[in-house]
Amino acid sequence: MIIMAIDYGDAHTGVAISDPTGFLTGIATTIHSRRDDVVLEELSRLIREHKVDRLVMGFPRNMDGTEGPRAQLYREFAARVAEVTGLTPVLWDERRTTVDAHRILADAGKNAKKRKKTVDAVAASLILEGYLDFMRLQNR
Q1: What's the CA dihedral at 96, 98, 99, 101 to 10 degrees?
Q2: Which of these CATH numbers, 2.60.120.380, 3.30.70.20, 3.30.230.10, 3.30.420.140, describes 3-138?
Q3: Cα–Cα distance measured from residue 135 to residue 131, given in angstroms and rounded to the nearest whole number
Q4: Exposed site from 27, 48, 78, 135, fewest CB < 10 Å?
Q5: CA 129 to chain centre
Q6: pLDDT tens track for 10-46
Q7: Among 136, 116, 123, CA closest to 58
């Protein structure tokens, strides 16, 4: 099963796609657009190209677990993704993924300008890794 994770954002949307075994992150990329129609078109292309079976999308929660201020926007975007692709995204808690992605890139020696170009792809990879770990635990 091939799973795609989406880290939706205002100007950049990170995407990570698992390997065919659904065990590891295989591909990570960033869609650089503020226009939802462009993002949806690119997500659809990636889904077709990589024969994605399942979607998981980062969902904003506050540190106490309540829904963040952007939760409704994300729900609406997830509904549009489902409408366009035929795959309904699993909404996945994305707390700390962007913070952790910045830390990972900083530790790798990337300066702030270089981090800005890849942080969303790394955040999507973290979302995907969390979901894949959850799935492995469920299957035990």
Answers
A1: 120
A2: 3.30.420.140
A3: 6
A4: 48
A5: 10
A6: 889 999 999 988 888 888 999 999 999 999 999 999 9
A7: 123
